[in-house]
Amino acid sequence: METKKELSYFRLKLENYLSEHFPELLGDKPFITARSDEALSTYCDAVAQGFSHPEAESMASEVLHRGLHFSKYDTLVSVLENEFEKELPSPLPERLTPMLLKNKAVQSVFDKYELTDDFGATPEYEKLYTELTGTIVLLIEVNGLPTIGGENMT
């Protein structure tokens, strides 16, 4: 029973994080299950090795969030909020971003870069940001400003 409770904790923690930063991964149940199980194992192993519960929690969190520190979603929301504030007032950036993530032109911009966990702290990030801004300007010019549902952005 205790294990199931901890497993649920790590699953919920991961699902909450994904919903805020990687909504496109929320439907990937095998990934969520595997990552949650790995975090639980890390936690249990750390406790068994004598680490405190907070230390074990920290180690498990590292496993849970591995490869999930740089978010395409957060980057697009940031571009929309910073560069298109007048055209796209809140909550439009959060509503449009999932659709932009599916857009081929937007994906091709992301595909040019090796998006590691620390990518946001590299000089390449500014290039990505600028390219995304230009791509979104072109999408708006071609499609007009998006509606609330954003259907004409994809």
Automatic annotation (TrEMBL):
Gene3D superfamilies: PG0816-like. It holds the Pfam family DUF1896. This is DUF1896 domain-containing protein.
